[in-house]
UniProtKB/TrEMBL annotation:
UniProt protein name: GMP synthase (glutamine-hydrolyzing)
Functional description taken from the UniProt entry: Catalyzes the synthesis of GMP from XMP.
GO molecular function, one term: GMP synthase activity
Entries under PANTHER family matching the protein: GMP SYNTHASE [GLUTAMINE-HYDROLYZING], GMP SYNTHASE-RELATED
CDD domains on file: GMP_synthase_C
Pfam families associated with the record: GATase, GMP_synt_C, NAD_synthase
Lineage, uppermost ranks: Bacteria, Bacillati, Bacillota, Negativicutes, Acidaminococcales
Length: 433
């Protein structure tokens, strides 16, 4: 690995990702590690130049305050402690606002740690190509290709690293957006000439999900079934030993640490089965979302692909709330298509980071053709974010909201109400489930 590293030890702070991003903003690579990492484990990490012990309100486990291993303080690199009273090193009461925080970090990272600002996408790509070649050798990789930003960038990286040793598999799990699978096949197989296998497993997934209402259970079912499909496809090929995934850093962070409760299990992190038959290749697991996009641009991917609308791995399964039914799944799919079309017409697709519709599992009373109806609401969500760890709401003008509402009510079956979600992250997450 070419980049110098600052390690952030998680002692319960809500600001771990903010600190990690601030260090990277200075041009130095940073990574969050659990509080109980040992000095021996730290020694295995490449080019560690400094350690930040980041305390916070969650620094209690089983009623006892936590600290790092004593040997960490004598590891041989500068240590800075923030919001953590146990350490006998520089101790700040809390992180100052962003600009001042950058100054504090700049002094620590460069003046005390003597780190070099060599964190950039060119170096990252070169490192990953070397690591992928070393990990995979002459074996073959099966890549889950959804067509979204993350999997597309992984595909580009793997093609650059191992070329024909890669087979891409696109699984239509019946939870895709309108015409999404057709678009993936057209772009990757027909235009980019990728070695692409298309699998229509929609009935299989929907059958497994029938009657399942719990969001975590749905995510785990979808994650496990994805693996089963890939295992079946791998058996049709020779030499497949690895599974490529578009796991990124927010997926890892949000799936929980010892001192930070899980926000939700991501299907490609907490949802993987214990009897996984593949070794994983996850070259983007260190990157935040904006860094993934920068990586895609550096790799030469088209701007339209790199800045494509984000779409969760479980697809519409986490936007058709509760137990999935074909009726509500079709409603959320059609409403989403209308939303995306009208956002594009208004130029909002270039302004808003993510926008989608949600259909909950309850109905409300309405009126249609002078008769009482009992139908579902559609909820619109439009948010802006840099790294998917926090999000703000896009303040839409009334005319565009009226137009979208009128189209949904007129064109989408079994819907009689449209709502707009005004909740930022936190306290809400980006997705509803």
């Amino acid at each position: 690995m070419q980049q110098d590293m600052i390690v952030i030890l998680d002692l319960g702070s809500h600001e771990n990702t903010m600190v990690a991003r601030a260090v990277r903003e200075l041009g130095v690579y940073s990574e969050i590690k659990p509080h109980d990492i040992t000095a021996a484990e730290l020694k295995e990490l490449p080019n560690v130049k400094g350690i930040i012990i980041n305390g916070g309100e969650n620094n209690i486990i089983d009623g006892q305050p936590i600290d790092v291993e004593a040997a960490v303080y004598q590891f041989g690199v500068p240590v800075m402690s923030v919001g953590h009273t146990l350490a006998k090193v520089e101790n700040l009461p809390a992180w100052p606002e962003h600009t001042a925080m950058l100054e504090v970090l700049k002094k620590f990272v460069f003046d005390e740690c003597h780190a070099t600002a060599n964190w950039n996408m060119k170096n990252f790509i070169n490192d990953q190509i070397e690591l992928i070649k070393k990990q995979v050798g002459d074996k073959k990789v099966l890549l889950a290709l959804s067509g979204g930003v993350d999997s597309s960038v992984v595909a580009a990286l793997l093609i650059k690293a191992i070329g024909s040793q890669l087979t891409c598999v696109h699984v239509n799990h019946g939870l895709m957006r309108k015409d999404e699978s057709e678009s993936v096949v057209r772009v990757f197989r027909d235009e980019l000439k990728a070695n692409l296998v298309y699998v229509d497993a929609s009935e299989r997934f929907l059958s497994k999900l029938a009657g399942v209402a719990d969001p975590e259970a749905k995510r785990k079912i979808i994650g496990a079934e994805f693996i089963r499909v890939f295992e079946e496809e791998a058996r049709k090929l020779d030499g497949i030993e690895f599974l490529g995934q578009g796991t990124i850093y927010p997926d890892v962070v949000e799936s929980g640490t010892k001192t930070a409760k899980s926000v939700k299990s991501h299907h490609n992190v907490g949802g993987l089965p214990e009897d996984l038959q593949f070794k994983l290749v996850e070259p983007l697991y260190q990157l935040f979302k904006d860094e993934v996009r920068a990586c895609g641009i550096e790799l030469g991917l088209p701007h339209s692909m790199v800045y494509r609308q984000p779409f969760p791995g479980p697809g519409l399964g986490v936007r058709c709330l509760g137990a999935i039914t074909k009726e509500r799944l079709e409603a959320v799919r059609e409403a989403d298509a209308i939303l995306r079309e009208e956002f594009a017409n208004a130029g909002l697709d270039k302004k808003v980071w993510q926008y989608f519709t949600v259909v909950p599992d309850f109905k409300s009373v309405g009126v249609r053709d002078n008769a009482r109806t009992f139908e579902y609401p559609v909820i619109i969500r439009a948010i802006n974010t840099v790294d998917a760890m926090t999000a703000t709401i896009e303040e839409l003008d009334w005319p565009i909201l009226h137009k979208i509402t009128n189209r949904i009510l007129a064109e989408v079956k079994n819907v009689n109400r449209v709502c707009y979600d005004l909740s930022p992250k936190p306290n809400a997450t980006i997705e509803w489930e």
